[in-house]
Amino acid sequence: MIERLLTSLRALAADVADERVRADAADAVRLTLDCPQHDLTSTQRARLRSLGDVLDDDAAAADAVADAARAACAALGIV
Questions:
Q1: In angstroms, how far is the first alpha carbon of the chain from the final one?
Q2: At what angle do helices 62-76 and 19-34 cross, to 10 degrees?
Q3: DSSP alpha helices (H): ranges in the chain?
Q4: Where are the domains of the chain?
Q5: Which of 4, 26, 68, 77 has the smallest CB count inside 10 Å?
Q6: pLDDT score of 41
Q7: pLDDT tens track for 32-63
Q8: Alpha carbon 35 to chain centroid, angstroms
């Protein structure tokens, strides 16, 4: 599932305005958070939750999505 999350974050970085990309990324975030196999820190969980919340908000600006995605990537150690 982490692989799917990484793929979704890369697609999101390429096109934050695409509704399908945003929906897929939101789904990947939810699956990652719900999977007990992932040993995520509280900071990683918080950043992923924030990203999921922004992605679920249809009115969220592309800048807000990009900022939340960058914060999630930083928390996960993805450069």
A1: 18
A2: 30
A3: 2-14, 19-34, 42-56, 62-76
A4: 2-76
A5: 77
A6: 92
A7: 999 888 789 999 999 999 999 999 998 889 99
A8: 15
